[in-house]
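pinned: reference chain
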Amino acid sequence: MSTPASSSSRPVCTGPGQSGFSRRRTFLKAGLGGFASLTLPGILRLQAASQAQANTSGKSSREKTAVIMVWKPGGCSHIDSYDPKPTAGSEYRGPFATIDTKVPGLQFTELLPRQAAIADRFTILRSMHQGAGGHPAGSMQMLSGDSDTRDKPKPRLPDWMAVTNYLRSQSGPRQVPVPAYVGINPPLEYNGPAYLGDGYSPFTVSGDPNSPSFSVPNIGLTDTSEVRRLGRRATLRQNLDTLERAFDQQGELAALDEFEIQAMTLLTNPKTKEAFDLSREDDRVRDRYGRNAWGQQLLLARRLVEAGVDVLTTSLSGPLCGRVGNWDDHAVNHHVFEAMRFRADIYDQAVSALIEDIYERGLDKRVLVVVTGEFGRTPKISYQPSTGGGNASAPAGTVQPGRDHWPRAYSNLWAGGGIETGRFIGATDKRGEDVTERMCAPGDFLATIYHHLGIDAAKTMIRDFNGRPTPIVDHGKPIPELIA
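pinned: its C-alpha cells
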C-alpha cells in the first residue's frame, strides 16, 4: 500500500483553484492545429488567462498506484445482482434464481455466473448508503463527496478523479508517455473538476473500441515530416519566450513547458500509440473480454493502467444497456428484468475478464478496480406504461415492471488494490430496503479510494475559487476491510 500524501498532523493545503496547470487541456485538445498556432501573443494570452501555479505545503502523492472505476450510470438493481432476496415476497424478489459463489455464504443472482466463479478475487460491499435520490446529486455524492441532496446543474466540488490528477501533477513531469487521467466514454454528465479548472479533466477517448474504425486522434503520429514540423514550432516558441522569462515570477512558462512536453509526447511518442492500440492484444484475450463496446473498453482500461495511467474511468452505457442507454430501469424506460437480462452476460463477461487480468498480470497490488453506480433500485417492484418500444422495453403504452431510484441501500464491487478478497461487507434487511450492518457512505467510499492512491483525505485541502481551503472530503474514513 502506498504511503499517505502527508504524515503531518496539519491538513495539506494546495493553492488556488485555477492553477497554471489548467492550461494543459488546451494543448491536449488542440492537437496539430493547436501547435500550429503557438505564437508569442497566443502564449501571453494563455498566461493572462490563468492564475499562478499552485503552491503546495507538504509532499504530494506521486505513487505508482492506480484506480480503474467502472461506472454504471443510472444505478444497478442490487436485488437483481449482488444482494438477492430469495425469501422476500414476489413483489420484491424478482424472477431470477439465486446461485452460490466461490465464497461460502455469498450468493448472487443467476445473471452473474462468471463473477460468481471468481468471487474469491474481489469483495462485495453490500451496505452503501447515501441521501440523494436524483441522478445529479447522487453522482456528486459518490464522486465528489458533496453532501447536498439537491440536484444541481453542475458540480460544486471537484470529483476524486480530477483531485487526484491535480495532486499528482504537483510532483513534476510524468515519466511515462500516457496521460495521468483517462476517461474511456467516461461519466461526465454530473461531475467534473469544478474549481480546479478544465486542465484536470480526463483525456477523453470516445466511441466504440470494438469498431473496426475505432481510433484515438492526436496520438502517436507516424508522419516524420509532421513530427519534425512540430519540433520546429516548439523550438520557435522557446526562442520567442526567452525575454519573458525574466518577468516570470511564478513559473508560468515552466508550467507551460511541461504541458507542451506532455502534448508533444502524446502526439509523437510511439509508445503512446501502442498503449491505445487494441490490435496489439491477442485475439483470445479480446474474445475473453467480449467483442463488444464494454468488453473492449475494459480491456483498453487494463492496457492503459499497465502503461502508466493513474486514474481510468469508464462508463457502461449506451445501446448495450437497453432502449434508454443506461441502468435507470424505471418501468417507463425498461422492463427491468428484461433489461437486466439483456445486459447481464456482456457485463458479467467484461468485468470478470478485467478482474482476472489484474491478478494474472501482477497488477493486483498497484491497481484498484471499483465497480459502482450512484445508487440502487427500489426493492419493491413498480408497474407503469412504457414510453417506447425497443431493446428491453415493450411497445409504448404497455404496462411493465420497473424499479426506481434507491439510495438507502446498494452494492458495489472492489478488486485488486492489495485488499483481502473473497469476502462480503455489510448487509441489508430481508427486503433489501435498508442497511442493517456496517453502513458505508460516499465519504467512506472516497476516502478508501484516496487511501489507495496515497492521499490522506482527512488532511488534504485545496483552495477554491475564493481562496478558501476546502477539504477534498469533509466526512468519512477509509473502509478498513478495503485497504491493504
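why pinned: Residues 1-10, 18-63, 233-256 have pLDDT under 50 and may be disordered. The first strand starts at residue 12 and ends at 14.
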